[in-house]
Structure formats: structure tokens, C-alpha cells
Amino acid sequence: MLKQLASLSIKTDGRYATESELKFLKDYLDSVELRISTYEKIRDQEEEILQKWEAVKRSHTEDLYHMGDYDMTKTCRRDQTNSLRFATTAMLLDELDRFREGTLIWYKTIVNSFKYQAYAKVNYLLIQEVIRLYLSAEEVELINPAFQLEHTILSSN
Asked: What is the dihedral of CA 50, 38, 84, 56, to 10 degrees?
């Protein structure tokens, strides 16, 4: 949204915006109440969502909290918290491009350096399941593109 607003400002310097140029703004404003309520719902239930995500991961057949003999629980918890917050903010601001180009590309280098793509492949599918327990179908539809983007980028080689 912010990137689109900046672009609109540059494109329309000295003239009025056309209907098609304003469409993204109208679409965003039509969804802003739902975006805010979804954001607030995730924010207010963050600890519960994270605990459920962790429980689901721990019940998974693969050990998603160890790299060799090293217990990664604290690191995973930090990363899950950041992941949830970044995705929620991207949804609120309708900024998936910025989320991908900034946060996810940077985080992908870390995932690749630790060869953690298999973990990411499972982890970012699980949050898509877990979040459905806390949100309405309409809210899930708003947030899932951010989780799907995380899954796609972080689980690829």
C-alpha cells in the first residue's frame, strides 16, 4: 500500500489520478476494517497461536526443533514470533511485495546457510493450518497469502 501510494504520487505529479490509478486505493479502503480487525485478532491471540503452532510442530513426525544435537527451541520460537508479526503487518498494509523483497529474501539467506529448507517447508504449511483455528474464513483469506509467500520463498533452494 505504501509503495503504491508513493508510486501514485510520482505518476500523478501535476495532474489528477485516473479511476484505474485509484482502484488499488479504493480496494484497500474497502478492506481496511477487515484488515485491522484481523491484525488485532492475531495480535491479541499471539501467544495462544504460537503455543498451538509449537504444539502442532512437536506432534509432527519429524523433529523440527533440533539441528543435530542442538536444541533450536528458543531460536524457533523467536523466528515464529517474528514470522507471525511480519506476515500480519504485511497483510495489514497490503505490502506483500515489500515483505518478499525485504524480510523474506533476507531470511532466506539464513535458512539456506543453515540448510533449513525442509524445516521451512513443514513449518510454514503448519501455520496455515493453525491460523484457521483462530480466524474466520474471510480473515484467513487475507492473511494466508503472506504465509504462502513465506512457505514458497523459504522452502525453496
From this structure: 40
Q: What is the DSSP letter of 1?
A: -
Round to whole Å and give the CA distance between 130 and 19: 39
What is the full DSSP assignment across 21-52? HHHHHHHHHHHHHHHHHHHHHHHHTHHHHHHH
Q: 76-95 burial, b if ≥16 CB within 10 A, otherwise e?
A: beebbeebbebbbbbbbbbb
- pLDDT tens, N- to C-terminus, the chain (157 residues): 777 877 878 888 888 989 988 898 899 999 999 999 999 999 999 999 999 999 999 898 777 787 778 888 898 899 999 999 999 999 999 999 989 998 999 999 988 888 888 888 898 999 999 999 999 999 999 999 999 999 999 988 7
Instruction: Tell me the whole-structure pTM to 2 decimals.
Output: 0.87
Answer whether 64's CB lies under 8 Å from 76's CB.
Answer: yes
Structural domains in the chain, sorted by start: 35-155 (1.10.490.20)
Backbone angles phi, psi at 132, to 5 degrees: -65, -20
